[in-house]
Every structure is written in structure tokens, then in C-alpha cells.
């Protein structure tokens, strides 16, 4: 990513790692690794792609922060993380991104996890 974004990138990266601390251990490990891989993969992209990349991660950080706050206030003790990914958004993904998303979903839904993924008629990512 271009040099002028370095402080913004670093701050966002640290914020997401900090937000991952509220996740169950398996999800935290998965999220941290994915974050590291994605930021490394986008290190040398052009300015436009860097902007979109940072915007998407900022949205993720905001949603995760909101969900963490909701989970703290939830008296049932059952944490819920994730959000609906509309088909229109999936249509904008490159084949490589779809493959990454499938790998991430498979990893996140492996049996014997310390968290449960709620079943829904709509996919949650």
C-alpha cells in the first residue's frame, strides 16, 4: 500500500487485533492469521485498491466492535459474531477472493470448535 497510508494501516491493523481479543480462542486465532495474510497480500496494491481494502477492514472493525458491545450486554452469555454477506457483494469478488472466502468458511465451520455458528437460510460470513 502506498506510503501515505502507513499510519492509517498500522492503526487499523492494531485495532482489529485488539478487537479479536473478544473472540473465542479458535476464532481469534483464525481471525488474526487471516488479518496478517490479507494485510501482507495487499502491501503493494495500487491506491484505489488500497482505499477499498482499508474501507472494508474499517467496516469490519466497526461491526466487530458493535457485536462485542452487544455480546457484553447480552445476558444469555451466548456470543454471536458475523454478518450477512449479500449476493450482490459476492458478485463483485474475484475468483481468488471467492476461494479465500470458501477456505475461511470451511476453517470456521470445522467440528469441535469452541463456538457455534448459527444455522440460517442465508450464509453468514
UniProtKB/TrEMBL annotation:
Keywords: Chaperone, Mitochondrion, Transit peptide. InterPro entries: SDHAF3/Sdh7 (IPR008381). The keyword Ligase does not apply. It is found in: Mitochondrion matrix. The keyword Transit peptide applies. GO terms for biological process: mitochondrial respiratory chain complex II assembly; succinate metabolic process. It comes from the Eukaryota. CDD domains: Complex1_LYR_SDHAF3_LYRM10 (cd20270). GO terms for cellular component: mitochondrial intermembrane space; mitochondrial matrix. Pfam families: Complex1_LYR_2 (PF13233). Plays an essential role in the assembly of succinate dehydrogenase (SDH), an enzyme complex (also referred to as respiratory complex II) that is a component of both the tricarboxylic acid (TCA) cycle and the mitochondrial electron transport chain, and which couples the oxidation of succinate to fumarate with the reduction of ubiquinone (coenzyme Q) to ubiquinol. Promotes maturation of the iron-sulfur protein subunit of the SDH catalytic dimer, protecting it from the deleterious effects of oxidants. May act together with SDHAF1. Interacts with the iron-sulfur protein subunit within the SDH catalytic dimer. Belongs to the complex I LYR family. SDHAF3 subfamily. This is Succinate dehydrogenase assembly factor 3. It comes from Piliocolobus tephrosceles (Ugandan red Colobus).
Amino acid at each position: 500500500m502506498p506510503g501515505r497510508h502507513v499510519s492509517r494501516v498500522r492503526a487499523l491493523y492494531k485495532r482489529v487485533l485488539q478487537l479479536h481479543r473478544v473472540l473465542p480462542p479458535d476464532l481469534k486465532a483464525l481471525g488474526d492469521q487471516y488479518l496478517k495474510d490479507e494485510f501482507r497480500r495487499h502491501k503493494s496494491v495500487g491506491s484505489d485498491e488500497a482505499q477499498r481494502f482499508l474501507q472494508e477492514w474499517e467496516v469490519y472493525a466497526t461491526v466487530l466492535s458493535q457485536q462485542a458491545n452487544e455480546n457484553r450486554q447480552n445476558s444469555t452469555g451466548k456470543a454471536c459474531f458475523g454478518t450477512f454477506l449479500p449476493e450482490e457483494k459476492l458478485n463483485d469478488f474475484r475468483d481468488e477472493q471467492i476461494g479465500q472466502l470458501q477456505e475461511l468458511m470451511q476453517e470456521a465451520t470445522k467440528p469441535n470448535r469452541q463456538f457455534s455458528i448459527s444455522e440460517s437460510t442465508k450464509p453468514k460470513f
